[in-house]
Amino acid sequence: MAKALRPYTRYSTLLIVFVAAMLAPGPVHPGEISLREVASGLNAEILYDPFLELGRIQYGGYAVRFAVGSDEMRTDDGTVLSVTPPTSNDGSVYIDENTATQLKAIWRPTATDRDEPFVSAIVIDPGHGGRDPGTIGRHVIDGEELVLREKDIVLDVSLHLRDLLRESFDDRRIILTREDDRYLPLDTRTDMANDLPLGENEYVVYVSVHANASLNTRATGFEAWFIPPEQRRTLIDPEDLDSDRRRIHAILNSMREEEVSVHSAMLGNELLSGLEQTVGARSPNRGLKQENWAVVRNALMPSVLVELGFVTNPEEAQLLSDPEYLHKLAVGLYTGIRQFVDVFETSNSDGT
Ligand SMILES: [Zn+2]
Q1: What distance in angstroms lies between residue 40's CA and the mean position of ligand 1's atoms?
Q2: Cα of 211 to ligand 1 centre, how many Å?
Q3: Residues 256 and 319 placed together within one structural domain of the fold
Q4: Span 307-312, mean pLDDT?
Q5: Does pTM surpass 0.90?
Q6: Rounded to the nearest whole angstrom, what is the distance from the C-alpha of residue 210 to the centroid of ligand 1?
Q7: Distance (Å) from CA 128 to ligand 1 centroid
Q8: Cys staple from 125: which of 81, 96, 175, 177, with CB 3.0 to 4.6 Å?
Q9: CATH number assigned to the domain comprising residue 31
Q10: Which H or E run includes 266?
Q11: Span from the CA of 134 to the centroid of ligand 1 (angstroms)
């Protein structure tokens, strides 16, 4: 009996192998290569949504966006590549040789050593997003219902801010943690800033943008928060130090804490005075405050959380629903960041 079965078993094994080969992901067109392979050569990871057929190749905060079937790929800092449209098969994405070459050419999540202090990246973090709407303001104004979601307000302002920063800082990386209505865990947001490769004398700053709510519907105004200096964090990885310096790691780390804290306060004050210039006539400056917010605590660089105004205050809610007002908020933040960068780079330079 066993003998009689054997040819049949062999045939079915062959059939299974054949069917498996048909189903296995592989290039759609001859000569295409797997995007995953190209990305791993760049030391990058791929985030790909097979349903939307959209994705990004990323490392640190640097990313290139692609869409299956689209002849454009875009970097976060605005470079557009004209490519042969990527194809997909069974959840894997394939590109042609020419696209791979272009990707390698523009891929630059690299650090540059500098003689003078240089803010090489500015990370803007629009709070909340996707299934997390943040605070919500509901009002009835002149018989009409006004519903404001924090996630929408902060995204609008951050997109404007990004454009303003890119326009004036074409030699720096301007990165948004999200550019659309998506949910992002807090760690992912700060990792995008923490993982940026930095050269000697290169710095990153981090600004998380939020809107406020209060049970007191009369509460109004904008404010900024930074981490209290007494908050203990590991800002210097002992592994990054040579053995001599590793012995004084605790001292070096607390010096860095002090420095980051001073710079965060400086950034917070500049943001507030920027906002005061553009919206101060309509919204009060509530000042710079200290709190151990997780969203900035894990950002290991000068970082500030800014609250643009109260969605729970009926008058301020009306302002926050006005695109022109949101634009003014963006200009205010932009002015503050510019001022911070100028002061930071000149005051930390040795003047040579
Ligand atoms: Zn928030």
Answers
A1: 35
A2: 6
A3: yes
A4: 98
A5: no
A6: 4
A7: 6
A8: 177
A9: 3.30.457.10
A10: helix 249-279
A11: 5
